[in-house]
Amino acid sequence: MKAVRTKLGKGGRIIIPTAFRQNLHLETGDDIILHMEDNLIYLTTAEQALRTLQNKVKNYINTTGQDISLTDELITMRRNEAKYE
Prior knowledge:
Layout: H1 18-24, E1 32-37, E2 40-45, H2 46-57, H3 70-82
Antiparallel strand pairs: 1-2
């Protein structure tokens, strides 16, 4: 999708063009997530942010077929680290 020019309104409001809203499946009142990196503002939905995080941790998911609790693993790691403090 190409870049479009828009205006900054009163109170810092930005109008997101219809094509962009439709592409992101945004409706009035939907929550969105903004973050800034290198002076660029990124906009995403909560669902897209969740999918991005899920993809990042996908490589760390248990593939042994055994039930593993990540919470228990973290507690065990912290207890082992505490032994050497």
